[in-house]
Amino acid sequence: MDDDDRTDRPLTRIQARNRQTILDAALEVFSQYGFRGATLDQIAEVAGLSKPNLLYYFPSKEAIHVTLLSGMMHAWLDPLRKLDPEGDPVSEIMGYVHRKLDLSRDFPRESRLFANEVLQGAPRMMDALTGELKGLVDEKAAVLSRWAAEGRIADLPPHHLIFSIWALTQHYADFDVQVRAVLGPGHDPYAEADRFLDTLFRKLLQP
After folding, report:
1. What are the φ and ψ backbone dihedral angles of 186, each rounded to 5 degrees?
2. Which of 77, 106, 150, 174 has the most CB atoms around it within 10 Å of its CB?
3. In this predicted model, what pLDDT tens digit does every residue of 142-167 receive, in sequence order?
4. CATH code for the domain of 146
5. 197 and 143 in one domain?
6. Is residue 64, in this structure, part of any structural domain at all?
């Protein structure tokens, strides 16, 4: 049975469970060591499966990595998709800020996986960055520009406003250890960040 025949057939319950177990283990390993530092042996060990069993589901480390990145992209862009062109500008932008921070809080490993891929030059997801991601950002940047032209928010470079939201929210996932070390015990980084970013961006957006 060749790979095409195998992948065309529906997975059994056990196969689907094993496949998800491998992806969960790979996410843990990739988020810690990056693509280059991770090995199939590490992923198989974390998954509790033999390496030959892992290779039954995925032919290579790159295949696992690409599957993770592809599955993550939709969820990663969803907070920006929800920015409503017909809504109240400040409310819509603040909603986006809070959704991005929530995503960093709830999916820190995915954030680090994405960051590691980009730091390596995005060799496995450049098409997604220049295609789906760029298209969505350009679309929402046009909305931000219109709101600024209408005097409803400050006249800010729209792409850089979006970049700043990414930087100030994803930092809490990508540099979680540093954030918690500096704040010390007794702090809730995400609750404090939520309040701070709300104040920061509301003031920044004032016309």
Report:
1. 85, 5
2. 174
3. 999 999 999 999 999 999 999 999 99
4. 1.10.357.10
5. yes
6. no
DSSP string, 12-71: PHHHHHHHHHHHHHHHHHHHHHHHHH--HHHHHHHHTS-HHHHHHH-SSHHHHHHHHHHH
Tens-place pLDDT, residues 9-24: 677 888 889 999 999 9
Instruction: Give the pTM.
Output: 0.83
In the chain, which residues have pLDDT < 50?
1-7
Q: Which domain holds residue 94?
A: 69-205
CA distance 13 to 81: 33
Residues 121 and 161 in one domain: yes
- CA dist 28 and 46 (Å) reads 8
**Gap between the Cα atoms of 162 and 168, Å rounded:** 10
Contact in structure between 189 and 180 (CB atoms under 8 Å): yes
